[in-house]
Amino acid sequence: MTGMTDQAPTRFPGLAGVQRILAVSSCKGGVGKSTTAVNTALALARYGLRVGLLDADVYGPSLPTLLRPEETTLYQSEEGLIQPLDVLNLKVMSFGWIDPEQNRGAAILRGPMVSQVVSQLATRVYWGELDYLVIDFPPGTGDIQLTLTQQLPIDAAIIVTTPQNLSFVDVVKGIQMFDTVKVPTVAVVENMSYFQCGSCGEKQRIFGEGARERLVQQFGFQHTFEIPLDPRLSQMSDEGTPLIASLPEDPISQLYYELAEKVHGEITRLQQENPGIPTLSYNVGQNCEMTYPDGRIIEIPPLDLRYACRCAACVSEYTGEQLLKKEDLDPDVYPTEILPVGQYAASVKWSDDHRSSIYPYDYLEERFVKS
Ligand code: ADP
Q: Can you say how many angstroms the Cα of residue 232 is from the centroid of all Cα atoms in its chain?
């Protein structure tokens, strides 16, 4: 068995050259998530960043409508990875290009399959060197979305909403879902926020005031952006040339540049402040090691790590009682496979055939350093 300190490239061959992954998410469909994802991706690209865009909405892929690459034949590399398509300086991929009859395909996909298909789509596409991979998430905050955030190393999220009454609850649900897997929400986009009168310039808030004030008051959340309701946004999207591509100087395009700039700034700041995620590894006959990018190492004896498993078979879900007894374990138990889970945990397969699905890094740090 070899050391496994460099896990990510082997698990995600297509993502090896991707610097940051940005999820664009919404609680409901039809709020403008895809419109935001495509315009944000194009805005990031206009700053000279190398950007990919993955349409992860397998139920209703909209990228083939929003963008029209000249060449839509898909090619496979020697390593079996799919080459993304090129359009408007973006590398793009959608289930809609893989299965043009996607509606039939989507109808038979069940929840767990959806997250599998999407992570395969993300990880089996050869994205090459990218500063950002923007993922247009399937709408909702259920199991599919949660699993995706656990399977893919997502760095940050943008939540898209509309200013109706319930939007505050939607946004909080979204922030909380990403919070549970340690993915920071770097912006909330209130789409169709107002309609600007063509003659007097007044902003008419057709759907009400939205969640902006409450987000600031209750969460201190400052990064809220308003995009107006504008028929040109939908018209140009339908024609396959999103607003930023057709009218780069338009005031609404400027709003997307501002959004992209703030998101990039916030992610860069968070990455500088954050010491980074550790890597869990094991070399035969030695302790397991949790190694931080700054070189700090926490050593954990394999038996202790196995005993620290929190799965339902090892710890009662209802009472929290420890079910696994140390004396029942093979004293020489060791990891046979260690894989990262999102950006916040690792899963371990053991020589006794047990699989510990999630060891959050914070939990390991708490248990093996502070005790
Ligand atoms: P979602 O991805 O959330 O399902 P879409 O981005 O596909 O939503 O948008 C739904 C519809 O609303 C599309 O027809 C789109 O062109 C339109 N749309 C989105 N944002 C705006 C906006 N700010 N003004 C006008 N139309 C919009």
A: 29
